User: Fold these one by one.
Assistant:
Number 1:
Amino acid sequence: MGELIAVLSGKGGTGKTSVCAGIATALSQMGNKVLCVDCDIGLRNLDIALGISELGAISFLDVCRGDYDVSMASHHPVYPNLQFLTAPMNCPAGDIDPLEFARMLNKARKKFNYILLDAPAGIEAGFRLAAKAADRIILVTGPDPASIRDARQAAQVLEQMGKKNIRLIVNRISKKMAAALNLTVDDIMDEAGLPLLGLVPEDEQVVLAAAFHQPLLGYGKKGAAAACRRIAKRIEGHFVPVLKVIK
């Protein structure tokens, strides 16, 4: 049975979706069958981060309602092990039947090694829908104080939901920023109250890859792309040192 991983953030602007896409791509490169599900009904940007914005895709709601089988999710043109379901349009997250959603994901478990759910930022209905279904939760934060505080609040909500397997990724971090904020990795973990899964450095390749309709891991080899590969290996259970972006 496949593993469900919800990729969440306490606030917008943390780069959660690019991290989700990078990890999903890396897991698929490692030979896993991976399904990416865009659960962010309001914004729907996961296709851009995956470099497939010009590719037609069915929505997860169409699969939930039985119009399509989950195996019909769009195949990535570059990574054959990676498939994608987009978010529906004009359907509030609160209107989605959680039982239908759970049934769809249970079917996906039988066909994929990993299912990654890119949830909307914040702690509203879409956040809770993805979190409830997940076996493992990745909480993405930026290094700024507001993002870290919101990550802590999101973690508290998840703990109230009974979620245990929660790990932190600090995205868009640089030595210069850390020095200006007088910030260490230990500070971030202490403030968020979560163990660290990985660090992703600030990297202009993320923006350039999206602008040129390319997946990050196919566009760049270092920086954020390399960090996503390290995180994917850690998810698989391999011992991989965390990138020393800051001391």
Note: The domain at 3-235 is CATH 3.40.50.300 (Rossmann fold).
Number 2:
Amino acid sequence: MPHANLAPHIHANVRAALDEDIGTLTPSLSQRERGTEYRDAVTSNADLTAQLIAEHTRAHATVITREAAVICGTLWFEDCFLTLDPDCKIVWKVQEGQVVEANQTLCEIHGDARAMLSAERPALNFLQTLSAVATKTRRYAIATQGLNVKIMDTRKTLPGLRMAQKYAVKVGGGHNQRVGLFDGVLIKENHIAAAGGISEVMEHAFQTTPPGVPIQIEVETLAELDQALNAGAQLILLDNFSLADMRLAVTHAVKRAELEASGGITLENVRLVAETGVDRISIGALTKDIEAIDLSMRIDLP
């Protein structure tokens, strides 16, 4: 997921976050124009607390982490400050994807004090949330190190932050599944029931799915796995299989299909799951059950 493809998502995420605090502006404005107008808003009445600071005051800030983490989200962080103050300078002491220790300095910021104070919370929200996703993903990647398995994300993301969180999964060493309903087929039990069965739904999928779009089907038993294999499925999700059944599933598939384990995966059991021989492990908790990394920003006058 290259940075260039992320730019529109970053700007949209930052715009929404700043609008929550400062107010809605014309969407067609360029970043520099947005910065000027946002800055005017900050100096008038949009950020009531920032008015306590004398206008045009210059300030310096330092951001540190209170705990070990994989740093992710620096582009979102920067865009928050640059949108409010296009002339601010951010000097990073760490790189995106770097593992940092508690109390390590992440960056220094020089710029307009009012804009800096208004950008602080949205910027930290992005950095600590995306770092949490990358950090959690890294733990799962380390737990399965040396095994031929991919740690995969899901669509269980925070509303509005799907692209950001999927990017963070990759930074943490994981892999992305489909972005949404539009770029991949995942046939679940209700689809199977509505279509009349596994062979029927697979036939429809092969007939109607555009070329190059992955088709995956979820199965809940070994019998359903065999039906899916006989119907030509090449990507099969094993839903809440026991470890013993996963091993049998790998034997049944005999490399005819790529198998993905899902459901009830934790750090404690992920290596056992990987050792069954499945090709992929999908974990909703990578993006759904996260605790923001504890970050702190301190401002002083230069």
Note: The chain has two domains: 3-141+290-300, 146-288.
Number 3:
Amino acid sequence: MKRIHRRPLDQRTLSFLTRRQVRVDAGQLVQQAWRTARSTRALNAVRDILRAMVGIRERCFFCEDSRGSDIEHFWPKALYPQHLFSWDNLLLVCATCNRLKGTRFPLDGAGIPLLINPTADDPWVFLFLDPATGNVVARIDPQTGLPMPRGAATVDPEILPLNIEAVTEGRVRTSRRLRASLDRFLVASVSAVAEQAALAALIQEVRDIDAQGVVSWFLLHDGRQLQPFRTMQTNHAQSWAALIASHS
């Protein structure tokens, strides 16, 4: 799972969603409202923007493995019809994640969702990656010594399939490729001119990696303390800063 930046909707599509929500608020049945809206040009525009938000591979917002095919409601539409046509509530997910999550939507004592919304949260604030296995687990809260509740809820296999074999293998493969790319940069950077060329190659390689959030974990979070990332920070600080800027 990785942070996904939500794009703005055009005014025409946003107005369509607002009008449809007014009908639901007035008593229109949720299933009927969603079924009639799904075939409209406006919902196709919504789907296109959601796809563009995750890039050419159109990965699922949750598992980052399978192709996103379904418009999913973060706040489940059956339980929270007041969010049915809210743009901020719409995600693009694979069929597996959509079916598994369903109406499973744990809240804390204040009524705040425990699941991570990748368009509103940085998942790695709540999650920790084991690069050797590709598994993600809940980050430990340093104040309580316990797993963070939002991380624990998000990695619950009964809610989201974030640690199935296909996904964990992808994370391990990405971790390996990313480390190899940095190793090549370090070997090639024997002079200032060579370093600039190696940096350009490294930035392109990082962009090409199907990260599943892994790149962000290594560059912006805990993974930056591992090798060869620490060596690049220490010995090539300017190039490291350029790499971070290209990823942000």
Note: Residues 123-164 form one domain.
